Amino acid sequence: MPSSPPPSIHWFRRDLRISDNPALLQASRSADAVVPVYIPSTWQEHHSWTGPNRQSFLCQSLASLAKNLETLRGRLICRSGDPIRVLEKLVRDTGATAIHFNRDPDPHGQGVEKKLQAACVEWGIECHGFHEHTLHGPTEVLTKSGDPYRVYTPYSNNWLSLPKAEPAGKPGMLNTPADIDSEEVPDLGHWGLPKPAEGILEGGERAAIERLNTAVAERISDYGEKRDIPGTAGTSRLSQDLRFGLLSIRKVFTEVSKALGRARSASSRKSIETYIKELAWREFYMAILHHYPHVLEEEFNPDWRGLPWDEPGDLFEAWKNGLTGFPLVDAGMRQLRETGFMHNRLRMVVAMFLTKDLHLDWRLGESYFMQHLVDGEIASNNGGWQWSAGTGADAAPYFRIQNPWSQSARHDPGGDYIRKWVPELKDVPAKRLHEPPADHRPLAKDYPLPIVDHKKERERTLAIFKKHKAAK
Ligand code: FAD
After folding, report:
1. Distance from residue 152's CA to the centre of ligand 1 (Å)
2. 345 lines ligand 1 (CB under 6 A)
3. Phi then psi for 45, rounded to 5 degrees?
4. Angstrom distance (rounded) from CA 104 to CA 111
5. Can you give the pLDDT at residue 1?
6. Model pLDDT, residue 181
7. Residue with the nearest Cα to atom 20 of ligand 1?
8. Is the distance from CB of 272 to CB of 223 less than 8 angstroms?
9. Distance separating alpha carbons of residues 300 and 288, to the nearest angstrom
């Protein structure tokens, strides 16, 4: 046992930053020395729920965190294995008397926290979990009768009316003892994963702060107009930063609120307010997952449980590979494959196409997105998929089926987004990109004909849902 005063442990999870990190701040206030630890998950835990894109962004963010900690005389300790066993050994190695961590919004992470709390009692040390991933926790925004909301608008009205916490600063010096064993900061080899997509954004806190500054200075005042035009840089691109905690939500909200205070025109103010409501969607879906964790297995709306879905086969492969012959759908799927990101409008289009045109189970799409998205967030992803399938909380009603051709004409009229991601179509006039080829000939060499007839599949979907409802 070391003779110096006992350190505190800070367990990094989805909070890979040093600024406004409540648990890290408290750990540094409670002891002269802090042991910051990251515990890379094992492959088994992640199987089918992640892939090289998200893990590569994670590795970059960890490397950047390690450097940032050095500026505070800290050292990132990495130890892989079962989190409880790793922390138990670290407590023994360091003589730490307290563990601090920020709570995880996902059920799996929450299960580990419960085990840790029980283990800390056994080890005779303090255990401090902090709520920090959202502005308002899931039990803070409830109906008058104390129930969780199931509909977004009343939830967001309540959410907007609540006072919001301000960001806190950085911790003082961490003084991590020099003699603690650590593995290297993990790279993709840790999980044995293949090469990630090339167009992934840069990880780390500094890059995330730059994105926030750009979003506030250049994007949110026009957000209302541009957010639905996938061919422009009209959205904030902060989702992966919030997913990995490179930015605190308090920092984002505060900067956006300052911009709202400065906005001169009514349209800028409206845009920024629309943006803030998107942050509320994120928290709405986290609250849904918290109160109804079964959504990860089944439909939120019991009316739609047991719907008959087709077997995935060639149509699913065509969807994944961006070879459906629907240019907008293919552009979205290729953007995802090449960058680990897909514009929100496209996420809705391709999700509705999978479930309503190809009649394939939303869980297939949900899992595929989780494997490829850098911002893969269980709650938002499940919420988005169940919304599109018509099965979720406050979802699109089953009969409101988006037409991928008119979506294309409305949101990418000049075809810029399509041509960027489907280069085979670079010489095709815009008008032809937004309708099935009248001559039944492919739009370009090596580009397929539409794999289904939207009108027919729409009728089939309506019949399936109606029959299912009638049988309930
Ligand atoms: P902006 O438009 O700039 O929005 C700002 C922030 O608000 C986002 O960063 C995000 O944190 C939040 N937000 C915006 N829209 C939504 C929404 N509909 N639901 C929840 N939060 C929202 N978002 C994820 O973060 N991870 C996912 O895994 C995810 N999967 C999705 C799957 C489907 C089928 C659908 C329809 C949507 C999904 N979304 C997901 C929501 C949304 O598409 C992304 O948050 C958004 O595209 C990220 O880009 P941005 O940061 O530029 O967003």
Report:
1. 15
2. no
3. -65, -30
4. 9
5. 47
6. 96
7. 282
8. yes
9. 9
Nearest atom within ligand 1 for CA of residue 343: 47
ipTM, two decimals: 0.99
| CA separation for the pair 215, 201 (Å, rounded) | 15
For ligand 1, pick from 218, 239, 251 the residue to mutate: most ligand atoms within 8 Å of CB: 239
The Cβ-side half-sphere exposure at 263, using a 13 Å CA radius, reads 23
DSSP 125: -
pLDDT of 41:
84
pLDDT digits (tens, 9 = 90+) for 337-362: 999 999 999 999 999 999 999 999 99
304 in active site? no
* Cα dihedral: 293, 294, 296, 300 (round 10): -100
Burial of 279 (0-12, 13-18, 19+ CB in 10 A): buried
Q: Which tokens go with 211?
A: 């994105």
> In the numeric block, which tokens belong to residue 271?
């845009």
Contact 99, 123 (CB under 8 A): no
How many A from CA of 335 to the centre of ligand 1?
15
Task: Let me know: does 451 contact 321? Beta carbons within 8 Å.
Answer: no
Model pTM?
Answer: 0.97
User: Residues 328, 342: contact at Cβ < 8 Å?
Assistant: no
Instruction: Reduce the DSSP state of residue 68 to 3 states and report it.
Output: helix
CA of 347 to the centre of ligand 1 (A): 9
Instruction: Give the pLDDT confidence of 98-144 residue by residue, as tens digits.
Output: 999 999 999 999 999 999 999 999 999 999 999 999 999 999 999 99
Q: What is the pLDDT of residue 200?
A: 97
Measure the CA–CA gap between 39 and 183, rounded to whole angstroms. Answer: 10
Low-confidence ranges of the chain (pLDDT < 70): 1-3, 43-48
